[in-house]
Amino acid sequence: MMDEQVIQGIENGNFDLYRTYYPFLSFQELQQIHDKWDTRYPVQNNFEKGQIETAFGKLISKIDHPFTVFEFGFHQGNLAKKLFDKAGGKIKNYVGCDICKSSLDRVNGNLQGRPIELFLLKKQLWRYTDEEYNVRNLDVFISSHTLEHLTTGEIGELLSKIKGIRFLLLELPFDWTLGWEGYVGSHLLKIHPQIFINKLESANYKMLEISSKEVTVNQPITFSFEYAG
Q1: pLDDT tens-digit map of 179-212
Q2: Under CATH, which architecture does the 49-227 domain have?
Q3: Where are the domains of the chain?
Q4: Is 141 in a helix, a strand, or coil?
Q5: d(Cα 8, Cα 188) in Å, to the nearest integer?
Q6: CA 187, CA 183: separation in Å to the nearest integer?
Q7: 3-state SS record for 176-224
Q8: DSSP code, position 97
Q9: pTM for this one?
């Protein structure tokens, strides 16, 4: 059980504290923290960027049948609403997955009548066996501003879990200069973008598009990949 003062410090927005103690937090403690952040930082509702919508439009042009989507880090469904509108009825099922119960509880009338399945994690996604929860038969895996919360090792475990999904559409912030520490109030992936790409390529994913290759600070980058396995 983590010290309550540490938990409170993280809940209050000390992200360096979060990164320091992350490996020692139980899943239940992580859920508690994310529920608190959901209340304290409503700006999370607007993390989805226009560039992921654009990339999605290009991606679905490659799919000639009704398709399934899994969004890792669904929050309250803002991005899903935009993607349903863009897909023009081609989405036959959309799974919204999140660690945060309070955000899933807010999924509202904007998604009423849509083929949505909400999935509240009870442990990390990669801890589910395929018998418990199988995602490999889905068409598109989407994650916007979520993977930066994970460690490098966890990203590898997640890739092992989702390997075989035809398309991956990912957006997350990187920083080429400061690294992971000293970034109060911001999230960014600890590894260099090229290392991230290499991890996906080693899992037999071919990159279709990257939104930017410029070296800038804390820049969200959108990637799309197709499974070539």
Answers
A1: 545 444 445 566 778 888 999 999 999 999 988 7
A2: 3-Layer(aba) Sandwich (3.40)
A3: 4-40, 49-227
A4: strand
A5: 22
A6: 7
A7: CCCCCCCCCCCCCCCCCHHHHHHHHHHCCEEEEEECCCCCCCCEEEEEE
A8: E
A9: 0.90
